[in-house]
C-alpha cells in the first residue's frame, strides 16, 4: 500500500474538518481537491507525507495540469497545510489518538487500498479514504442486490408498514437494507430487517464513539449489531454529529446499495439528497406511488411527476425523469429478483 493506516486516518481527519458559515457548517478543505491529490498520488505511487520535496513538486505539477483555475487554489490550500510541519505533526498526533480509540473499542478499519474496500465506493466521485466500522460489514457479493429503504422522519402508519414489511421480506431473501438510522422510515426499515434475518446496516453522520444520533435509536443500533449487522462511518471515531455530515453520509447510503426505495417524503428533507446522489451515481431509484393523495407524500408525487415541481425543489427535472414508480412490491421484486410476497397494509390493498 502507498499509505499506512495512520496516514489514512490523517486524510479522514482533514476531510472531517468543518467550520461554521452562518447557521450551517461547511468543510474547511475542499473534499474534491483532497480526493484529487489522494488519487493522483496513488496513480503516481507517491506518498505525499513521505516523499521528497522534488517528488512532491512533480506530483503537484501533475495535479495542477489537470485542474481548472478555480480549483487550483483549493489544492494549494491543502498543500500548504501539509507543508506546515507544526500542523502536520498535530494531525499525526491526533491520528494516533484516533487509532488508539479504534483499538480500544474494537472499531475495524478498511482503507481505500484494501482488497475488501467496496468497488461501489471506489466508483463514486468522493470515495471515503477510510471506512470505520463495527460489526459484520458485507462482502462485495452481498452488496450486489442491496437496497436503501429511506424516507421521512415524520412518517405515517402506512409508510411505516411498507418500510417494515418490505425490509422484512428482503432480509428473508438475504438482501441487505443499508440506511441511515434516522427516525421514521429508516428506523422501521431497520426493524423489519432485524425481525427477519438481520441483514441491515447503518451509515452514520458522526464518529462511531460519538453518542448515537438520534438518541432514541441507541437501542436500535445495538439490535443491528446483535443481529449481525453493522454501523459504518467515514469519520474519525471522536467526530461529533453535524448537519453537513448527515448530508455527506447520504451519498454513501446510495453508493453502497444497488438501488434506493423512497417510501415517503415531503417537499423538503434529507431523503431528496439521497435521491440526487443515487441518480448521479446511476443507481435505480424507486418511489412508492400512493393510490390516493395523502398528507406527507407530496415529495413522492413530485418525484413521480404527479405534481408540479415547486421552485427550489432539491431534485432537478432531469433527475426526476430517471425515477421509477412502485405501486406494489410485485414491481419491486421483479427488479431485484424476489419471489412475490403478500403483506396487508392500511389501504386495504396488498403491497405485493
From TrEMBL:
Record InterPro entries: DprA, DrpA_SLOG
One Pfam family recorded for the sequence: DNA_processg_A
Domain Smf/DprA SLOG: 111-299
UniProt superkingdom: Archaea
Signal peptide stretch: none
Gene3D superfamilies, alphabetized: 3.40.50.450
GO biological process: DNA-mediated transformation
Family: Belongs to the DprA/Smf family.
Database matches in PANTHER family: PROTEIN SMF (PTHR43022:SF1)
Name listed for the protein in its UniProt record: SMF family protein
Origin species: Methanococcus vannielii (strain ATCC 35089 / DSM 1224 / JCM 13029 / OCM 148 / SB)
